[in-house]
Amino acid sequence: MNHKKDRLGRVKEINRFPVKSILGESLSSALVDSRGILGDRLWAIKNENGKFGSGKTTRRFQQMESLFNYKARYEGNTPLLTMPDGTEYRGDQEGINKALSELLGFPVTLAREESISHFDEGPISIITTSALKMLSKDLGEIVDPRRFRANMLVETEATGCLEDEWVDRLIQIGKSVTLKIVAPLQRCIMVNNPQEELKQDARILKALVTNHAAMFGVWAKVEQCGEVSVGDEAIFLE
Fold this sequence. Notes:
14% helix; 18 strands; disordered N terminus; 38% strand; 238 residues; three-stranded antiparallel sheet; mainly beta; seven-stranded mixed beta barrel
């Protein structure tokens, strides 16, 4: 295989979000199974009607305000949630549901995924540095990749939204993981929302709608499981 010809780039970031729609953790490496990054969005905040907390309201999801004020990481196989005031709760700790309910203002539970998927689209989401640079140029300032909550940021040398040309192709990341790119990712209001030191910015979604049909990045399904690490090379297999 001509690696130079078929090379996409290298993995610059790996991100995992233990609880859907709240902030997650940055990883140096991660296991990938058929469901995606191991443990990604495996948990969600569920209301009494069985809908999961999100930045939007749909048939499966309920919009819950200020979810980006919460953060989660794993301690072993158990999610550890950090509340807006810095208090931490283990996902198996008595009192976590009461704390979440009091803070959100209505009854909720922290729920592990069962028959209904917590994913909006599919298992793994990918964005590129080249697409970020193009969007940053549109806005006249650097756009932070955290806004897109991607599982992987791939550093590329080319320019433009390369991901648009990846759909239906197989890519290999590192020595073992193979992904099939399924479709572009349609973005919603969540990309504008403030998180950590990032401010609310309505220009981001507006620019994507105007210039790219509200699409940014792609999602992929897993063809071959394994492990991915920051620095891994990503290449086309077909």
